[in-house]
Specification:
Number of strands: 15
Strand content: 35-45%
Order of helices and strands: EEHEEEEEEEHEEEEHEE
CATH architecture: Sandwich
Structural class: mainly beta
Low-confidence stretches: 1-20
CATH class: Mainly Beta
Distance between the termini: 30 Å
Shape: globular
C-alpha cells in the first residue's frame, strides 16, 4: 500500500509534487480516482495527528482507505471552476462504524467518519467581525485566509438526513448530512448532488467559484478511531 502524507491545510504543499506543477482545472467534467495520486495533495491541520490514507481494493472497487486514530487530516484537489459551470457532484464512500459520541453541532465532539469538502470563493468583506478575525488567524497559521464558504457532505450519527449543520466555530463552514445512523454501515453508498442547490440550501446565496475539493476522516475531538473508504468522485 502507498501512504500519502503532507503538510498544512489549506495552503500549498511544501512538497514539490507533480500536483504543484499541473495547471489548476477550470473546466468540467472532472473525474478523481484513488489511483490518481499525483493530483491529490495531502494536507494536515496545525497541531493535529495525520489520518492515514492508503490505496486499497475494496470489493470490486479501487478505493482510498482512511484510518483515523485521534487524528484529522485530508487530501485535496485544487480547482477553479466558475459558478456558471457548476453542475452535479457524484461520489461514493463506505464507513465501517460510526464514531461513538460524535456530534457535529458541538465543538468538543465535532468528528465525522467521512467528509467530502467543497471550498468556494466569495466576498470576504461580508465577513462578521468574528469571521474576519478567524480569517486573519487562519492566514497566520497556514499562509492563506479562511475560505469564504466551505460546504461539507458528511455522515452523522443521528441527525435527520438532508439537515444542515452550522460549524460551531464559524458559520462559514456548513455541513450537509447525506447519510445518518448505522443502517448502511459496511456498504458502498453512492450519491449524486446538485452543487448549486446544496450551496444555496446551506448558505442562502448563490455559490462563487469552486476553488477546491477534499476528503477528510477525523477523530481528533473524540480521541477515537474510525476507518472508511472513498471511491470515485466526479464533477459534471
Amino acid at each position: 500500500m502507498s501512504q500519502l502524507t503532507g503538510c498544512a491545510f489549506w495552503p500549498p504543499s511544501d512538497d514539490p509534487a507533480p500536483q504543484a506543477q499541473q495547471a489548476v482545472p477550470q473546466d468540467l467534467p472532472l473525474q478523481f480516482s484513488a489511483q490518481d495520486k499525483s493530483r491529490w495533495e495531502a494536507m494536515t491541520l496545525p497541531g493535529k495527528l495525520r489520518t492515514l490514507f492508503t490505496l486499497e481494493r475494496r470489493g470490486d472497487k479501487a478505493a482510498l482507505q482512511a484510518q483515523a486514530k485521534a487524528s484529522a487530516s485530508m487530501l485535496r484537489q485544487r480547482l477553479n471552476i466558475a459558478p456558471d459551470k457548476l453542475g452535479s457532484l457524484q461520489f461514493e464512500w463506505q464507513v465501517e462504524q460510526l464514531i461513538a459520541g460524535a456530534d457535529m453541532s458541538q465543538r468538543e465532539t465535532e468528528d465525522s467518519p467521512v467528509r467530502l469538502i467543497l471550498v468556494f470563493e466569495g466576498d470576504r468583506s461580508r465577513f462578521s467581525a468574528k469571521n474576519a478575525l478567524l480569517s486573519e488567524l487562519t492566514h497566520g497559521l497556514t499562509g492563506e485566509p479562511l475560505p469564504y464558504a466551505t460546504l461539507m457532505y458528511v455522515w452523522c450519527n443521528a441527525c435527520p438526513p438532508e439537515s444542515v449543520i452550522v460549524n460551531p466555530r464559524t458559520d462559514r463552514v456548513r455541513k450537509l448530512a447525506v447519510e445518518s445512523g448505522p443502517t448502511h454501515l459496511g456498504q458502498w453508498r453512492s450519491y449524486r448532488r446538485d452543487v448549486k442547490a446544496d450551496f444555496e440550501k446551506a448558505f442562502g446565496e448563490p455559490p462563487g467559484a469552486l476553488l477546491g475539493l477534499a476528503i477528510m476522516t477525523d477523530t481528533d475531538n473524540t480521541r477515537s478511531s474510525a476507518r472508511a473508504w472513498y471511491g470515485a468522485i466526479r464533477l459534471d
